[in-house]
Each structure stands twice: as structure tokens, then as C-alpha cells.
Amino acid sequence: MINQIQGLHHVTSLASDARTNNNFFTNELGLRRVKKTVNFDAPDVYHLYYGDKQGTPGTVMTYFPFPHAARGKRGAGEVGLTGFAVPKGALPYWQDRLAAMGTAGLARSSSFGQERLSFQGPDGDDFALIEVEDDARAPWEGTDVPAEAAIRGFHSAQLRLRDEGATSELLKYMGYQVLDHQGDMTRLIREGGNGADIVDIETLPGATAARQGAGSVHHLAFAVPDRAAQLEVRKALMDTGYQVTPVIDRDYFWAIYFRTPGGVLFEIATNEPGFDRDEDTAHLGEALKLPRQHEHLRAKLEQNLQPIEG
Description:
Elements: E1 8-15, H1 18-28, E2 32-38, E3 46-51, E4 60-65, E5 78-87, H2 91-100, E6 107-111, E7 114-120, E8 126-132, E9 153-161, H3 165-173, E10 177-182, E11 185-189, E12 198-203, E13 217-224, H4 227-239, E14 248-249, E15 253-259, E16 265-273, H5 298-304
Parallel strand pairs: 1-4, 5-8, 9-12, 13-16
Antiparallel strand pairs: 1-13, 2-3, 3-4, 5-9, 6-7, 7-8, 10-11, 11-12, 14-15, 15-16
């Protein structure tokens, strides 16, 4: 069994407009933009990162905003919902705040004994704020959201699959264990993780396949402490029969990728070197940072990329 994984590292999704996406996460949800860079494979498209003060693994939501991208189609084989942890008693504040901002899909519910507020992002992304007791992670305080209500980081990611069996076994191999079952949902947890410890699997046997587009999660990333641990995980996965990419330098972490039995793309990302490798922590996310191979395009990119405030 793999024991190096510490929980979620980041969640990367697709969007249709960079400015709208930035406003939603920084102004509505009160997260910090910790990096403004570009897609390695399509440098004319931003890669935006949002999280806590320093972009701690387990707090970072990232987006590729492809201008005017068509919306994705919900279905099996995707991350269906991303959950954020908030303190106990914070949901009334968030319900009032998000309602005043016209956020779509607001609904209160309870799942696995925890109160949650579901809502949708600008591209129909499915999110939930989930009340958690004793979450020691510090929130970003450079916002109008009071610290006693602010997002602490990820709570969970929810997979939508036709059959949970093979993916559940994979997650167990990755150090997760089944915590509970509720209806068509199975909850797995990485005990002693980084706070972003939960993966839920929703089993929908008759669901049609998801189609990626704006509002879809592109991949789900899990955290390991360093490159040595990542190489151990890569070898273990390959020895089990998974086709895993070589290690790829993503500037702020190293990454490997593989496709799960249910169709979801998983990434294993290192906690090192972090988002302060090319910016002081006090100024994260302010300047346009480019991968070395795209630095020669700076003048063109700065002229053509949509300006983002803040």
C-alpha cells in the first residue's frame, strides 16, 4: 500500500472567462489569488491559482479559463463536486453573503452528519461549503470575509462513477480507508492527512459519460511531501499496472498523472517548491509569471491576455 499521500493537493478545473472566474474566487469566496501564470500547453490561456495565504497544498483551486468555452456536460467519470471546509456555525453567514451576490444553486443539506451549503460557480461548477469542527488550518485574512467564517481549504472531492469498485480499491491502495456509506455515496478518508482528507464516491450505474467543458474539473491532485516520495508512488502505481507519466516540472510543484478505472484523471503533486519560488509571499498572484519556455512570449501574452483586476 502507498503511504506517502497526505490528502488533496489541488483541484484544477476549466472556465470560460478569466475575469469572472477571478472575481468569484477572490471577491465572493474570499480566497487569495496565489499565482497568475499560463497553461503550459496553451500559453495564450491563463492558469489561475486560488488558496490560502501561501497556497498551502490542500487549499488550492486552479483554473484554465479558455475564453468562451462551452459548458461541460455532467455525468459519470468526473469530479462532480468540490467541497470547502468552513468553521462550525459559518453557513448562515455564507448563505446570506452568496444570496446577496446572486450565486446560483444555493441549497442547505446534511451529509455524513455535517451541515453543508451547496452552490454553483459561474460556469455551473458544483461546490459546497461544509462545516467542520477543529480545523486548525489558518484562513486567508486579506478579504472582507471574517476569519471566523472563512474557508480553511478543501474538505473533499466527490467523484461521480458508474461503478465505485475499482476506483475505491485504488484509493485504498493510495492510503485511504472507507469511513462510511450513505445511500449511493461512499466516503473514504486519509487519516492523519493535511486537512483535505476526504474523497466521496457517488455511484450512478445508469449515468451517461461526462463531457468536459467550462465548469468541469480537469484533474484531481493528491499531495506528497517531496520528489523522493513522488518517485516511490510512481513506482508503486506502475508496478500495479497503471500507466503513469514521467515527472513533469510545473514550476511550483512536480507532477505525475494517470487515468483511474472510473475515467477521472489523477495527479500526484509535490509540496515543494511552493508558490513563493518566484514571488515574495506578500505579493503572490500579482504579477504575470511565465514558465521559462514561454518567457520569450511575454510581450505578446501581456498584450493579448484579458486584464484581471486585483
